[in-house]
């Protein structure tokens, strides 16, 4: 009878050891994934990288200094402004670069017609951005498609 008691005690000890090892492994795996902040099924979702946005294309322009229109015809009302154009593609940047004197001329004419009091507030500045986009959307050469300007960024703006 004593022989039957010893083997069953050994079997119970073996099962306890096996269960303890399985429990430790399961806790280790759960702890690892908990530490990483994700579950095993979520790993595939996280590994897919978000799409990389296209590189923006900018065309910085030299600063402009123009006299502004004002009711008293004061010649001291001056606008010093730096602009950078955000363009949709490299072809548009090349076109603007090739016709840079025409682009600058259009902008100088537009800027010299501005009213100093209007440019003093944010709405006036936003209206100026819209007008610049409109002026530059006209074809630079007859028969060419209309160029697109995505955005106009101010890099300097001094109203005196």
From TrEMBL:
Membrane topology: Single-pass membrane protein
Cellular component GO terms held in the UniProt record: bacterial-type flagellum basal body; plasma membrane
UniProt-annotated location(s): Cell inner membrane; Cell membrane
InterPro entries on file: FliL
Keywords: Cell inner membrane, Cell membrane, Cell projection, Chemotaxis, Cilium, Flagellar rotation, Flagellum, Membrane, Transmembrane, Transmembrane helix
Gene Ontology BP terms: bacterial-type flagellum-dependent swarming motility; chemotaxis
Pfam family, one: FliL
Transmembrane segments: 17-35
Keyword match Transmembrane helix: yes
Keyword Cell inner membrane: yes
Summary of the function given for this chain in its UniProt record: Controls the rotational direction of flagella during chemotaxis.
PANTHER family on file: FLAGELLAR PROTEIN FLIL (PTHR35091:SF2)
Family: Belongs to the FliL family.
Protein name according to UniProt: Flagellar protein FliL
Organism lineage string: Bacteria, Pseudomonadati, Pseudomonadota, Gammaproteobacteria, Enterobacterales
